[in-house]
Amino acid sequence: MSWPSEMPESVRGTRARGTEGGFAVVPCVDVQGGCAVRLTEGDPTRETVYYPDPVAAGRHWLGLGARELHVVDLDAALGAGDNRGAIEALAALAAEHGARVEVGGGVRSLEVADAWLARVQRVVLGTVAVTDPALVASLVARYGPERIVVSVDARDGRVAVRGWVETSAVEATELARRMAALGVRELIYTDVSRDGTLQGVDPEPVARVRAAFPHRLIAGGGVATDADLDLYERLGLDGAIVGRALYEGTVRYPRTA
Within 13 Å, how many C-alpha atoms sit on residue 237's CB side? Predict the structure, then answer.
């Protein structure tokens, strides 16, 4: 996979999320079948379409002042094609606003990571953190830890892989420790069983991952209200990736004190 043009210089090398200080709330744009959607518990058959065009979703959040978007290609994560064109267009729009984009979903090879990192600030690695940790180490060495993020997505404490359709034998806390040892300096933790449910955050697994990973930790999965974001802050997290709660309006955006 390759693209003819590179990430604009205007947004290349901008600071990593949260270095401006404070707790970051990052809108999530999940893309499936060319639409901006949210899934319930990661199940591709239980989708809610919020925007028929992901660029419109990005335009909405950027218009409200978003400085970063977390974008996931759900089809690529599941090995069911990809949404490259739509995400390219979304990344171009974000660049016009001087905003950062990180892309995850199906980033399981050096070629795919290279192609995305020519267009966006960061890639998010999931499955390969379990199946190919050497690739994670190679990408950290190649691009620096500021451009490589690992997502630890867990169900009942064990890491889910391949679009969350399989559950590995690896404990989330153990994977967090392994990634820290490989030089990863930012982790996203997602509680798969609560993702997209608006059930609220379960603090116990989040606290365990926080104890296992001494660097930047972002979380998601189950956020329903601003109280959940307050809980993340009390647990010592650096931010949250929020989807359905933002789209449904149960969490304020932009966040105010």
Answer: 27
**Residues 176-195, mean pLDDT to the nearest whole number:** 95
DSSP code of residue 56: H
Per-residue pLDDT at 17: 37
132 is annotated as an active-site residue: no
For residue 95, count CB atoms less than 10 angstroms from its CB and return exposed for 0-12, middle for 13-18, buried for 19 or more: buried
pLDDT at 38 over 70: yes
Residue type, 30: D
Residues 94-122: pLDDT tens digits? 999 999 999 999 999 999 999 999 999 99
* pTM score, whole prediction: 0.90
| Active-site choice (153, 195, 228, 238) | 153
Annotation marks residue 82 as catalytic: no
Q: What are the residues facing 153 on neighbouring strands? A: 190
Q: With CA atoms as reference, report the closest residue to 241 among 184, 211, 201.
A: 201
For residues 96 and 58, give the distance between their C-alpha atoms in angstroms, rounded to a whole number. Answer: 12
Q: What structural domains and CATH numbers belong to the chain?
A: 24-248 (3.20.20.70)
Q: Are strands 148-155 and 122-125 parallel, antiparallel or unpaired?
A: parallel
